[in-house]
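input
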Amino acid sequence: MSLLDIDQLYTFVVIAETGSFTEAATVVNRTQSAVSMQMKRLEETVGRPIFVRDGRKSRLTDDGARLLVYGRRVLALNAEAIAAFSDEALSGTVRIGLPDDYAPRFLPSLLAAFERSHSHLEIEVACIQTAYIIKGIRDGSIDLGLITNGDCGGFGAIVRREPLYWVGADPHTVYLADPLPLAIGPSDCSWRHDALAALDRIGRRHRVAYTSPSAAAITGAVVAGLAVGVLPESALTTEMRILGAREGLPPLPPTDIALVRAAHAHEPLHDALADHIVTSLGNLSAVAAE
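output
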């Protein structure tokens, strides 16, 4: 029976989560050639290619994506086993806030993996707007927050960059309407600002039909065919389809997700969750092989 090497799995997961062989080499404290050799040996063990060239980068193959799921589970179980025999297990409560734009995709896998290796920690989650997260961070009622960086004037450390999309839903063709009806965030939303500016640049007539700080409300209007929405990759659902140049819509700039901390949130329990968030939210679509 072939045995997976846990060091190789760790390097593999770090490559996927940092998006770069070079950055992964720094994280695992190995040379890039050593990292490449580890991945070659891992491919030999599983008997399948796990990376494929895509221009100047490499990306995960379908088998690589499958292996990533198992790799994370193996590493989480390893961390859980080590924690079970540790006399210094972290305990206490961490309060984290994030908008509902990100909660459906990020929370389940992020918190489940963290809980397996830090079972003595209690995590309180608040799904609220970025403005309220920042207020909570400043008054100390929230320890950590995930926010849309553009909504806060650059407050926080960027941990993920995502594409921003125009979205509609089949079979509706509301994108043909003139003026174009929009379902977007409130006036202080950076996505709203970017969307309206992009439409103004190309002279596309538009009107704000629905306004809400909630991704769920925007999704409802889009899926019902009432308006075109503006959402990041992490907020897309299977009921939506991405709209673009063929529908007469201009490209949108990417959006940055930032991690913010309260002034008091620098205890080991806060560090553990913050480190886990930074690692878990790495973009996985493409892996740089430079």
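quick obs: The first helix runs from residue 6 to 18.
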